[in-house]
Write a structure and sequence with these properties.
Blueprint (H helix, E strand, L loop, with lengths): L1 E5 L2 H23 L2 E5 L6 H8 L12 E5 L1 E3 L9 H10 L18 H15 L9 E4 L24 E5 L6 E5 L1 H4 L5 E5 L5 H7 L19 E6 L8
Parallel strand pairs: 1-9, 2-3, 2-5, 5-8, 8-9
Antiparallel strand pairs: 4-7, 6-7
Helix pairs in contact: 1-2, 2-3
């Protein structure tokens, strides 16, 4: 695990953008493609803007990058809450990514059917081999959830890698998510976390006493993680 703590969130964003570029270029050189699962929400939007702007020329070939999603809200792709819509506007369209290089969750299906269909898409893409992304980007919720792995949900008990529909029990409703075993297969995992409001969640995630039912981010394999955070979010880490 690498814990990168910066004075400002802009520094953290810049360094994660550089990390993304390095991993992308290395993967393209070694395997002729780079596979990434994007995070949703507001925090990574600024990162996507950097990648589509200042850093766009630094990736050797964007046409060899394939985009999936770590989780998705059960809303139409046109809805403001859609993770796919946010990524499309801030990253995919500005980079002119071909439609067959981006894989959104089909939220026109029923939630569990959407999860099965997304699992099948990944199986087809990875040719039924182990689904192993080159990079999975993650955020951290105030309650220490990540992707759509929420406290005390059934998906936290999964032992086989897969995609699941999750009923959050709150206003978020249904979500589709990669489960922890699938996330942990990734070659690299990066968390992007900002602000004092995330300090308690970071403290719980780094607590050596395991309680992943209450703090799901503890399920993610620490040896695979690079953290990009500011000093406010990291203030309570022991």
């Amino acid at each position: 695990m690498t814990l990168n703590i910066f004075d400002t969130r802009q520094e953290a964003l810049d360094m994660l953008a550089r990390y993304f570029v390095q991993l992308a270029n290395d993967a393209i050189e070694e395997r002729n493609r780079f596979t990434v699962a994007l995070a949703g929400g507001h925090t990574p939007e600024a990162l996507y803007g950097l990648l589509a702007g200042v850093y766009r020329q630094k990736v050797s070939d964007w046409q060899k990058v394939y985009f999936f999603f770590g989780d998705e809200r059960y809303v139409p792709h046109t809805a403001p809450e859609s993770n796919y819509r946010m990524a499309q506007v801030s990253l995919l369209e500005p980079l002119s990514i071909p439609g067959n290089h981006a894989f959104p969750v089909n939220t026109a299906l029923a939630p569990e059917a959407a999860a099965r269909a997304y699992q099948q898409q990944m199986d087809d893409f990875f040719l039924s081999h182990e689904i192993r992304f080159d990079l999975i980007l993650l955020g951290l919720g105030d309650n220490a959830h990540t992707a759509s792995l929420f406290p005390y949900t059934e998906v936290l008990k999964d032992t086989q890698a897969g995609v699941k529909a999750v009923w959050t029990g709150d206003a978020s409703g249904w979500r589709i998510t990669l489960n922890a075993p699938l996330i942990n297969q990734a070659r690299n995992i990066a968390f992007l976390v900002f602000g004092a409001e995330k300090a308690a969640a970071m403290q719980h995630t780094f607590n050596p006493v395991p309680d992943s039912d209450q703090y799901p981010a503890q399920l993610i394999r620490k040896e695979r993680i690079a953290w990009f955070t500011d000093k406010d979010a990291a203030a309570l880490i022991p």
